[in-house]
Design a protein that fits this description.
heterodimer, A: 229 residues, alpha+beta, 2 domains, 4-stranded mixed beta sheet, disordered N terminus, B: 176 residues, alpha/beta, 5-stranded mixed beta sheet, globular
Chain lengths: 229, 176
Amino acid sequence: MLPMLLLTLAALEPASLKVFKGTEGQRVDVLAVKPVAEGRALIRVRASGSPFDGLVLEGKSKDGRVAVTYRGSEWTVLNTTDGRGRAFFPEVKEFTVKFDEEATGQVDPAALIADHAKQKASGELAMFAKKAYPHLTRKYEAKASAAFTCPGSTFRFDWASFTDDDMDNLDAYALCEPLAKAKCARLKASKVVCRMGPAFAVTRADDTLTFTTTAKGAADGASFLAGKL
Amino acid sequence: MHYRRGRFVLPLETPFTLESPLNRLALAALFASTLAFAADLKPAQEEAKAKFDEAMEEPLKALNEKCGTKVTVKSDYENYKEADWAGRSYYSWCEPAMSAITQMCADRPAYKKALSKLSGFSCLFTGVKPKDKKDGSSDFTLRNMSYEKGTFTFRIHPDQANVAESAKATVEKALN
């Protein structure tokens, strides 16, 4: 994870920062990153009551308008002219904002970039950007729950690792089924996780066993696991 | 294959046991059709169907209450293409059309009487009659709506506008 973090940190270089304050204490930090011509920006909202407070999202900025990808679609989160405007974060009422010079001086751009890199690595940002699949995730989790019968252990999907394309076209449960149906004695972990990746893998950390499945998981996952567990 | 909203109901007077060959046959047929249905849909289409069912539940209930009908909703999820509707809720095209018909029943007893023969409501992704350069704001929508033999059909496309007004106009034209 560290090399990935460093790579992300190296990729983003701050250009200019602006902090906007809302009338009810909300704060919106906007950091334009180089090269400025590309219009890339990091944006963070705090104290808005949104479940996404604290996330440092990456978006596109142009003429005072910042848009991010939310649930698979473009979503304008900030629209300002001459330092004043409105913020529109998901699941919270829109609010008026005004540029605040003093608050701008108190934010460390490097810390903002570091938070963004951490959230990117943890999958928090992917879950914000990805489309929602309430029916499919419920269905797959129910199937896994029925198939996974190891006492004292829990099974979960790492949904952040499944792209929208994976979810649209593949049966995530079928890809993870070899793990859900693996013999309990071989798992030797209290937490069992199935994630999607480019190649089959099994990792153990603390008391967690993680199986990285692929698009061929339904056909080849069981034989791979048989050799690894 | 089309999905039909409905329930598989066994008469209460008839105890359901697997000892009956007919019941075994019926159960096998039910599972076979369910499996075939599931196999036909890609995950994205299955998710779209679930969202559609949930979104249409209340409007359908209102329609059947106001019009005194037992309408079933039909769509062709196997033709749903995620890319065509990215960022859009395709049921937002169907729901206003259904609500417009519900409103007609609520507003005029004569419409309610005439629409009591409504038995089907289809929102389809295929067979969309194309847009024309000379189209006014509602023409593309109107061209893809029909009310025939008790079934309202709407072939939907993201570029259609004025859905509710067009649905009302389509039904009024058919009734008058």
